[in-house]
């Protein structure tokens, strides 16, 4: 995937985030405000958990963007059942399901049991 395609997708994420925020508040935020909100409330917390759980090392054959998408998808799936879910659970769920390492899968499943 080319960098321009990745940037376009990130812009799409931010525009969706802007739309969701504007649906909940009585005024309209700018795209700059939406970017800041997305970075602080979506991207950074997810990226922090991705680093903390070492998920990028578990999927060296994938780009960080691909792993980010995997965790995002899992997070939104988990949110349907539990609005209070955290990104660590999404990271461990992806590792438990997608990792090629039996040890990584087992470790992730143990983490999931403790959450």
């Amino acid at each position: 995937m080319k960098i321009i395609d990745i940037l376009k997708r990130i812009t799409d994420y931010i525009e969706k985030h802007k739309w969701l925020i504007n649906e909940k508040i009585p005024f309209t935020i700018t795209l700059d405000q939406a970017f800041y909100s997305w970075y602080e409330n979506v991207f950074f917390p997810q990226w922090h958990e991705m680093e903390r759980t070492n998920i990028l090392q578990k999927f060296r054959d994938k780009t960080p963007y691909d792993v980010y998408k995997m965790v995002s998808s899992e997070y939104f799936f988990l949110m349907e059942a539990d609005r209070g879910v955290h990104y660590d659970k999404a990271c461990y769920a992806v590792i438990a399901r997608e990792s090629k390492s039996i040890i990584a899968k087992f470790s992730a499943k143990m983490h999931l049991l403790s959450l």
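The mean pLDDT is 94. DSSP finds six helices and no strands in the chain.
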